[in-house]
Design goal:
The chain is α+β, with helices and mostly antiparallel strands. Helix content is 45%, strand content 12%. It has a four-stranded mixed beta sheet, with helices on both faces. Helix 2 (45-61) crosses helix 3 (81-97). The chain starts with a helix and ends with a helix.
Length: 182
């Protein structure tokens, strides 16, 4: 499953994140060796916490040129979106307890991602959908440097919503299913 999970995540990065320009900062890392995709095959919450802490430690101990950012993928766990959100809250607590708040930030993605207050069928949900539950560990310094040279970064979510709505849910769903066919 690890190989399939990594392959699906790389397709998602290529076709959705970069292909739809959902994250204008992702393109340089797409094929870079310092993009780490850590597939966690564990299913128990205690094991997921352990793996997340190991990945936070690795990111902290590594130079940016060696590990720029890490996607921790959970293909066998956290399938229920509410369970996932609870784990993301725990992950944020672990980040703070580890003394990494302000050094590393978390971004969350899930196959069933739904923004509160949005219609269940809204295209906007696809901006945070990934093939598997995952937590993206980002270096704050990299994020800050990327934002320095980007006009109106606070408009990224609005641009994403507009772009995804223009494409439409049916086409997004078709593209989503294609991630798993190849």
């Amino acid at each position: 499953m690890t190989d399939n999970a990594e392959r699906h995540v790389r397709r998602w990065l290529r076709d959705f994140v970069v292909g739809l320009n959902l994250c204008p900062f992702a393109r340089p890392l797409l094929g870079a060796p310092n993009l780490r995709i850590a597939v966690c095959e564990e299913t128990q919450i205690a094991d997921l916490r352990r793996v997340l802490l190991q990945e936070l430690d690795l990111l902290q101990r590594s130079m940016e040129q060696d590990v720029a950012t890490t996607l921790v993928v959970f293909p066998r766990a956290l399938r229920n979106f509410e369970d996932y959100l609870q784990f993301v809250d725990e992950a944020q607590d672990l980040l703070i307890e580890s003394g990494l708040d302000g050094i590393v930030q978390l971004a969350s993605f899930h196959p069933q991602y739904r923004f509160a207050g949005e219609a269940p069928e809204a295209a906007s949900h696809f901006s945070n959908r990934a093939p598997y539950p995952l937590i993206h560990l980002l270096r704050e310094g990299m994020v800050s440097r990327a934002l320095e040279d980007f006009a109106d970064p606070e408009q990224i979510p609005n641009r994403n919503i507009e772009a995804l709505s223009t494409i439409g849910v049916d086409e997004l769903e078709r593209r989503w299913q294609a991630l798993f066919l190849r």
